[in-house]
Amino acid sequence: MPDSVLASAPDTAASNASLRAYLHGLPGVDEVGARARAADLSTRSIKTTAKAQAIDLAIRMVDLTTLEGADTPGKVRALSAKAVRPDPADPTAPSAAAVCVYPDLVAVAVDALAGTGVGVASVATAFPAGRAPLEAKLADTRQAVADGATEIDMVIDRGAFLAGDYRKVVEEIAAVKEACGGAHLKVILETGELATYDNVRRASWLAIHAGADFIKTSTGKIAPAATLPVTLIMLEAVRDHHAATGHRVGVKPAGGIRTTKDAIRNLVLVNEVAGAAWLDPDHFRLGASSLLNDLLMQRTKLTTGSYPGPDYYTLD
């Protein structure tokens, strides 16, 4: 997206019209083709050695998440301990990428994870609905960063996006990015509410050029969430942006990724669509709460030949 399109203009209506013209001028998504390619890639098989490497990589990409009204400091401390050492019986199991919590519990996670290298992510901007004044969203963000969050997961104003008020969406993302300071910004599109694949592509490009460090599919509160075709479209957007600018933006599918098969399908998608440069936690994450246990069970099966019991790992 040209800088002139994103730059502030004296006439806001004209500026918004330029954004609409740009975003609606993007190539349309071949929905049948996107589904077919995602389905084809999901059938790829991975041999034992590569599978072991893929499982460890997926563990390193997990944002271990708890985003419930009943969250407590004790639950966050327990989740943080699990993120650092997912399998207490196996010190070779890698740590997760980050722990993701609500802003009021950031300080608890920061204290629990000090010196471990595991990041602290926080949802902000009136997650999950995003229905709040901008100043409230910015205060939410600033407080999480002040308490030590290294990553902020914000939600876009889907109502504004669907109404065609792209200028408002851009300005909010840019303002939140500024409020993040040194923290990375993941922009949640909530693809289940965007209605069409074309809208997913438009929202991806808009978020990328407004300052996102990552684009993220979903809050995990709306279905459908992280489907493979949607993730494919978002990977195409970051790939094409990198080809045009040399700047690499990450992707985070979240919601509904529960099994090792799901995780490996996503890794295959990353490799085939965006490329191997995205196969690291700095550029690809998996938002999940239940995925980690299945990854650990499959990892144990590969090393010992048998599955641990269903109560072997903690329930999150």
UniProtKB/TrEMBL annotation:
<comment type="similarity">
    <text>Belongs to the DeoC/FbaB aldolase family. DeoC type 2 subfamily.</text>
</comment>
<dbReference type="GO" id="GO:0016052">
    <property type="term" value="P:carbohydrate catabolic process"/>
</dbReference>
<comment type="pathway">
    <text>Carbohydrate degradation; 2-deoxy-D-ribose 1-phosphate degradation; D-glyceraldehyde 3-phosphate and acetaldehyde from 2-deoxy-alpha-D-ribose 1-phosphate: step 2/2.</text>
</comment>
<dbReference type="GO" id="GO:0009264">
    <property type="term" value="P:deoxyribonucleotide catabolic process"/>
</dbReference>
<dbReference type="Pfam" id="PF01791">
    <property type="entry name" value="DeoC"/>
</dbReference>
<keyword id="KW-0456">Lyase</keyword>
<dbReference type="InterPro" id="IPR011343">
    <property type="entry name" value="DeoC"/>
</dbReference>
<dbReference type="GO" id="GO:0004139">
    <property type="term" value="F:deoxyribose-phosphate aldolase activity"/>
</dbReference>
<dbReference type="InterPro" id="IPR013785">
    <property type="entry name" value="Aldolase_TIM"/>
</dbReference>
<dbReference type="GO" id="GO:0005737">
    <property type="term" value="C:cytoplasm"/>
</dbReference>
<dbReference type="InterPro" id="IPR002915">
    <property type="entry name" value="DeoC/FbaB/LacD_aldolase"/>
</dbReference>
<keyword id="KW-0704">Schiff base</keyword>
<protein>
    <recommendedName>
        <fullName>Deoxyribose-phosphate aldolase</fullName>
        <ecNumber>4.1.2.4</ecNumber>
    </recommendedName>
</protein>
